[in-house]
Amino acid sequence: MRPLLLLCALIFTAGLSAQPVVAPTPQRAGDAKGEDLAGYNIVNSFESGYRFRAVDGNLGKFRSDVNFGNGIRLLGSHLTVHSKKPGTGKYFDEIVLSTQGLGNDPYQFSSLRVSKAKLYRYDGTWRLMDYFNPALTIANGQHLINTTRQLQDHDIVILPQNRFRFLLGYSRNQQDGPAFSTLQFPDGRGDEFTYLLNVRRTRNEFRLGTEFEVLKTKFHVLHGWEYFRDDTRAPLFSPGAGANPNDTSTLTRFRRDEPNHGQAPYWRVGLHNEAFKSFTVDARFTNTTGQRNFVFDELALGTGRFSSAQNRQVFVGGNARRPVTTGNVTLSWFPLERLTITNHTALYNTRMEGEGTYGEVNNAVAGLRLLHFQYLGIRTFANLTDANLKINRWLGLFSGYHFSERRIGSSQFEDFEAPARLDRTEQTNRLHSGLLGVRLQPVKQLRFSVDGELGRADRPFYTISEKDYHTVAARAQWKTKRWNLLSKFQTNYNLNSTSLFVHSARTRVASIDGTWSPRGSVTLEAGYGHTHIETVTGLAYFSLGELVENDRSFYRSRLRQTRLGAQINVNKRADIYLGYHRIQDAARLGIALMDQAFPLTYETPLARFSIQLHKKMRWNLGWQYYNYKEKLLTLQDYNAHTGYTSLSWSF
Amino acid sequence: MLRFWGLFLLFFGVLWAQAPKDPYIGSQACRGCHLVQTQDFFRNAHTKADRGCEGCHGPGRAHVNSGGKKEAIIAFSALSPQKSLDNCLQCHSKDMSRANIRRSSHTQSEVVCANCHSIHKSATPKHLLAHQQKDLCYTCHTDVKAQFSMPFKHRVNEGTVQCSDCHNPHGAPASNWRMGQRPRMQQHAQSNEQSCVQCHADKRGPFLFEHAALRVDGCNSCHAPHGSANPRLLNRPVVFTLCLECHNGAAGFGRTGEGIPTQPGSHNMADPRYQNCTTCHVKIHGSNADAKFLR
Prior knowledge:
B: 295 residues; 14 helices; elongated
């Protein structure tokens, strides 16, 4: 009985953690043992019902954050078919199918596995995401996106248990839908005009490979072909007035085509050798040849700042290339049973190059015409050594020393004005970092770990890059059959400064979480965490025509998260779940332009009830409330009631 | 003659009695006591393992003969994390995704296979995870759970994006889009590229004009992929402070070492018009038509 209670507690805990989305219902209909039919065992559960919503406030922001709508859905389904005697199925031994949100949910998912022992294994996933984003704080809604993204991955392994295995795969990623973007007209100082885009991007990837074992060394060889097409268009459009009322320029006609097609064939070779008991070797080598061919054609007609007619056509053509070669070798040595030493060497070499011709016609007069060439090469070498020592049952140590060197070379060619100019630069950055950690387990139920990392880089590329940094992390966990308490603390600090400039970033994370299962039918959980971020960065910018050089950008975030949950099972028939989740950024809104914070409150209480009506049927009911408030742009606030009622059944 | 045959039988009888018996006893013997673990095991991927239960738990005869002593068999609950890892890797090391498992942050913290996978009570038929993936990760990564509760985030809680789309919980090669091995445990796209470009293929390029930040320090230079208050998952609530923190002309940084260029004098930052940089610099990830990413 006790193992059964423990199993129930584990299942309920999993249900608790599923916050904050109320549907689909985690409880399934039907017998978990399934039913036998024609040599197979079948377990299935389908949940279908009606989802509803009522939104008060900014619907666009709600769609961007949550996006659940009204209507009938197949909220979730689960089907497994297994042959009772493995390997005896005629065409398959196993089918595992899971779906979520099919019908009309904004987030749809399905996963399928079909396999026959020793012959084949197929894994497929299909995902769809409806994406709506008004982007009010980005460009006042001028960059709204309303697209759908579909992702598919299909993999087949032939002879999965053989020493020679064959791999076939296909992935597809497609993004479609309307969006807005902006352009300036008649020139770089012109007004900004919003225009319509038809987004259409497709990525197809085909894979073919093999895995085999020779002389106790396992090899993995994969060749892939990636094809990318971006056929996003801006059809003929009449934007009219621009974003700035003081600017008198207008854009009466606009059209843009910018097809961008490319391919990236790649090789990936890996090996794993464990011929020696105390020594293993893992290696991976990859080579990719990426290329994109593009043309760009833009036509814009309107009037300039002084009401004179303006027309402009821009046409560009060219290609860009980026071959990448990498090598990774990991050596693992086990000199003692309690000691593991690993060394990892990584080499990364890439160069980006391309050339394009740019042509511009203004007011029917051929004007600017130039040739661009750009090159950016990056070569990184890294060597990382780590040791992990278990001194005794209650004490362990781990440490590491990491070195990496990155060389960046770049050149740029422009014939914008005579004479043509070619700039070449090169720089090298070296990073040394050390890692030290201690693990303690004084009693079986209690674990502590503390670790820290210290790093020094001599030539970071950016002002916000890591230069002189350290991190400290500590974790304590008390775990018994009824209790699970976890507390964490972590701080990251980075200082990147030169004589007059400073960038300082500090992050502190602390949390405590607990789960208590006093009985198998009741589980309670609570958690609190905070994440504090503070950055200070030196700035230089123009304001009212004057260069401001001694200003600072401050950014503060005080993220506080509270969550509560209770799961109650009544007579093994009914399940009740009550949860509350609140996240708050408690930082004070800055008073100066460069003093940034984003105070907000986002809370989502939810309740779910599920009852078994029949051995093969359950009725489910759920409600979730969303309340979003912010101080920077209060027109984004909203509150929404969402809910569902559904039947879960098994046949 | 009888004495001879008697001695002969006695001699070989003793030899037979002392001969080592096959230490393996077969999975059928396990059913007697471990019914819960064995009755539904035909659904488990490990059912294909050679020697059934003893494929993972080792020879079982001594365990049976001792009346079920835990010490007489490989009981994973009694193994040290290191031993537990070694046992699983006997079969599972051939997968390339586990090449760096011994130096991964999880292994260093003694989070090994059985902490996430449950062979006998798995919540997911694929990968035999103890709970749904996000719940498993959230158990320890509570700060990440908070980030995924922000208004703008990848749809992990909603079920269409998984932690393992971007992270490799078994350890990853050094992340060469940045220096050293930070960030750790990140899944690599084709050629040690950030996993972001697997889905956001339009940002991958190559472009004639690359925004070097992507290639030199990675997408995290500007984006907070777990969650943010910004609609484009930027590290700052508004755009201009993010851009100005690098484009400030500070000496010693950038391509030439003369600082990353500041904006021209025509950009009056006191005017809200110039505070949304990407309104004009729309192709900020890279452009084929304009070196300043204007089109």
